[in-house]
């Protein structure tokens, strides 16, 4: 392992090229074009940007992209009806409902209504449960991307390494811990009630920071030579910046860079990998649903 600053954007671009070739092959040999339906409710600006990036990437690799932009006043009943229709639509192999949702809609009711086979976000309780017990499952995109960077890109010998996951969310923390456990890591999950977090960091060979607090993890906490994967995306005010703010991660990058053997920047680290893994999950879902051999992407 020689790369210190992990270029997630470049790794994701390489993955997209491989997926584009796989989609071309699926269409030529089986007449199959994976279809991704993305549902956005309301006008949450960060979600709109993220959804546009997902749709652009899907089209770049040759997926069919179906877009549903619903008003903020949409009822839960109407959203559930749309999901029920997408569940039985044979052209749609992956369904993604962008979070957060307006207050009148229960997100768990919506996520639970998605067919687990089309749950390309990996948030359905069926997929979460299967992942937890080590069965094949749709893996949430961000943890999947993090594992790819560690295992396939950096080629770390994960078995026996000490891994610290900072954050216990259902979206990142818990599935990340399950994936690292499956690879033979000794895993600790830290959170808001963890005592002496710096001491936990000092023992970790791998740190995955997903706590949602800007530059929270300090470089002096990190064990020399550790690998740091920063999942955080936070805006901090900065009058000197062109937009009046900077986007930073959960790790103080400059100080951590001095201690780590490899570290993801923010932006340009985990974010592009999340979108790439969404496309990978859609291709996987299409092949499983149709009984077509799955390409190695």
Structure description:
This protein has helices at 8-30, 45-60, 76-87, 107-113, 125-132, 141-153, 173-182, 197-203, 253-259, 270-290; strands spanning 35-41, 64-70, 94-97, 162-166, 186-190, 206-209, 227-230, 234-237, 245-248, 262-263. The longest helix has 23 residues, at 8-30. The chain has 297 residues and is an alpha/beta fold. The protein is globular and about 50 Å long. Helices cover 42% and strands 15% of the residues. A five-stranded parallel beta sheet has the order 5-4-6-7-10, sandwiched between helices. A three-stranded parallel beta sheet has the order 2-1-3, sandwiched between helices.
The main sheet orders its strands as 5-4-6-7-10
Approximately what portion of the residues adopt beta-strand conformation? 15-25%
Count of runs of 4 or more consecutive helical residues? 10
Rg computed from alpha carbons, rounded to a whole number of angstroms: 19 Å
Mean pLDDT: 96
Cα end-to-end separation: 22 Å
Number of DSSP strands? 10
Structural classification: alpha/beta
Order of helices and strands: HEHEHEHHHEHEHEEEEHEH
Sequence stretches where pLDDT stays below 50 over 5 or more residues: none
What's the story with the biggest beta sheet? 5 strands, parallel
How would you summarize the topology of this molecule?
Elements: H1 8-30, E1 35-41, H2 45-60, E2 64-70, H3 76-87, E3 94-97, H4 107-113, H5 125-132, H6 141-153, E4 162-166, H7 173-182, E5 186-190, H8 197-203, E6 206-209, E7 227-230, E8 234-237, E9 245-248, H9 253-259, E10 262-263, H10 270-290
Helix pairs in contact: 1-10, 2-10, 6-7, 6-10
């Amino acid at each position: 392992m020689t790369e210190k600053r992990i270029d997630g954007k470049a790794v994701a671009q390489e993955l997209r090229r491989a997926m584009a070739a796989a989609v071309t092959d699926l269409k030529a040999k089986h007449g199959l074009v994976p279809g991704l339906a993305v549902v956005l409710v309301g006008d949450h600006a960060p979600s709109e940007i993220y959804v546009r990036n997902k749709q652009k990437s899907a089209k770049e690799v040759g997926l069919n992209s179906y877009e549903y932009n619903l008003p903020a006043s949409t009822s839960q009943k109407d959203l559930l009806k749309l999901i029920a229709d997408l569940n039985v639509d044979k052209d749609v192999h992956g369904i993604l409902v962008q979070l957060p949702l307006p207050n009148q809609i229960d997100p768990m009711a919506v996520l639970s209504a998605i067919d687990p086979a089309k749950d390309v976000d990996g948030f359905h309780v069926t997929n979460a449960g299967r992942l937890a017990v080590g069965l094949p499952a749709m893996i949430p995109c961000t943890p999947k991307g993090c594992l790819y960077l560690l295992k396939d890109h950096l080629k770390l010998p994960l078995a026996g390494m000490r891994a610290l996951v900072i954050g216990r969310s259902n979206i990142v923390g818990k599935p990340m811990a399950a994936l690292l456990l499956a690879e033979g890591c000794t895993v600790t999950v830290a959170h808001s009630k963890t005592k002496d977090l710096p001491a936990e960091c000092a023992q970790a060979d791998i740190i995955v920071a997903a706590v949602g607090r800007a530059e929270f993890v300090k470089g002096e906490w990190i064990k020399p030579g550790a690998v740091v994967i920063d999942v955080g995306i936070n805006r901090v005010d900065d009058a000197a910046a062109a937009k009046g703010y900077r986007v930073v991660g959960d790790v103080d990058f400059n100080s951590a860079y001095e201690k780590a053997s490899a570290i993801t920047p923010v932006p340009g680290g985990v974010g592009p990998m999340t979108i790439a893994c969404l496309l990978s999950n859609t291709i996987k879902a299409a092949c499983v649903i149709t009984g077509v051999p799955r390409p190695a992407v």
